[in-house]
Amino acid sequence: MSLMENTRALNNLTLDVVGKLLGIILPAKGMARCPLPNHDDRTPSFEIRHQGRRWACYACDMHGGTIDLVMAYHGMEFMEAKNWLIDRSGLYVDKSKRSPLRTKNFKVQTHSQSPENAAITDETPPDQNVYKELLARAPLRETGAKYLQKRGISKQIIDRFLIGQMPGFTEIQELIEKFGFDRVQTSGLLTKQSTPSRFRPILPQAAILFPYFEGGEITYFQSRSMNDSDKKNRWRNLNHRRKRIYNVDVLRDSRISRVAICEGVLDALSSTQLGCEAIGFIGVSARLSESEMTSLRGKQVDILLDWDDAGEKRAAALRKDLARFGIAATRKTAPRSGAKDINDYLREGHVSI
Fold first, then answer.
1. Alpha-carbon distances of 16 from 52, 65, 110, 255, 260, rounded to whole Å
2. Which domains are present in the chain?
């Protein structure tokens, strides 16, 4: 096999297979936390695409194929990374021992997806009845209302978006008694280790509960701890469920002529309160589907991602993506006040944007 054929065959390996060789777990496709050693990725910014053979980290501003991943992970030069991958993949066999494998006959051993990735890729539809029942048992309490007030969110916005507060263990037990363990678990409301006899809610008790709506129906939940110092665990998502776009219905509402793209629920709520309807990404690296981008045509689109390095890089990439669909989005510049995001801007006392 020639050097060029070797390189081509190595780049035909899928990244989840190469991840196993590196000792890391990567999904077959979609978003994941960046595996590179020098990147403490708290929100997924690493995307696998092109049939699982290409990757990009929007926070690190790096991308490539399988050999590039080995180079970035181990800090190797190209040939060193290539030889490392050849040795561990079994692609090349020395001619003195036996004939080399031919590219057309080369097959990579396939690995089944982890249960987590399988659930995300092939998930069942959102269970409206389970989600509605949870929200009915999750009224916003005084502690939650005070926290949101501290973040500048008005009662009008709280009521409009049906923001609640995560109930305790008893209410989750009642959900299981009503719908059955399997159904509640499939809805993503329980931890991975939960069993019918011993279960634990994935969303913490008393955390602020944000329902996600699509077509007027609840499709997802996200919670936010009121402990601002717990940066690692303050946001929680459903278990094994595909992350969604917050307030996505505004994209298809013909009455809305201006939409902001924000990072996170609180920023989307803040923008809405400031007079600009908004959607919220879960993590700066989240992406809009083609149909979602198409639905933005004819609207004024403002990009209100966080005013930091990661937000600026993602905003530039997002503008390019939207331009391919004929959408001229505007990146709002950082305020002189030093506000880091649109919620900071709201809390400074501004009433419009």
1. 7, 12, 9, 44, 35
2. 3-120 (3.90.580.10), 124-237 (3.90.980.10), 248-347 (3.40.1360.10)
